[in-house]
Known about the structure:
Strand content: 5-15%
Helix content: 40-55%
Shape: globular
Number of domains: 2
Amino acid sequence: MSNPPFVDTNIFLRHLTDDNPDHSPRATSFFSRIQSGEITARTANTVIFETVFVCESFYRLSRKQIRDAILPILTLENLIIPELRQIVAAFDLYVAHSALSFADCYHAELMKHLDLTEIVSFDRGFDRLPNIARIEP
């Protein structure tokens, strides 16, 4: 049995935006094959971060639109993603706290998972999160 293929950011983007007449249907078909269990695939947190960033900055989607579009893909049973629980939880913070980037929301969720309560940061957005104390160096 071979290792599952790695899914790059552009596959997520073509599926989500349906903006390329050639690539978009092929990306959607690929995710359909994952959903049906025909194939298993893997991706990385950095791919998710990049997808969120491009959806937000280039396509100007709202945080809620991004969350609602991406979560159904990320939770496909045959798509392997490290720290999926923290990624999913980060989307709720991302929608609720506009002062924090998606990466910062993920960091907050990862801290919770690791039972960490202090973050060394100049980013005052963390001050709005309960159970996290921001300290400056």
